[in-house]
Write a structure and sequence with these properties.
95 residues, alpha+beta, Arc Repressor Mutant, subunit A, two-stranded antiparallel sheet
Amino acid sequence: MDWWGYMIKKDIFEVFFRRKPSMILVALRNNTKAKYGSILAKEVDCTYSHAVKILQEMEKNKLVQFEKRGRIKTIRLTENGEKIADHIERIREIL
């Protein structure tokens, strides 16, 4: 696919989904081990504070789960989070 085709696909995806939250869910799904907020923020190209706000909203809606180990908080998808991330990925492929 050329650059123009990629941009059209990207634009239509963003019509349906907010980019950063979708990318966070998919990034968590595509990685088998737990993630840290700072690593996720870098992967989806947003600030740490923005990523934390998104993750807190996802936690309220039972899409992610924080696990505290000492001073470090890791983030994992819940079963519902896995399902939604899977559907987002499928929709992105279709578009």
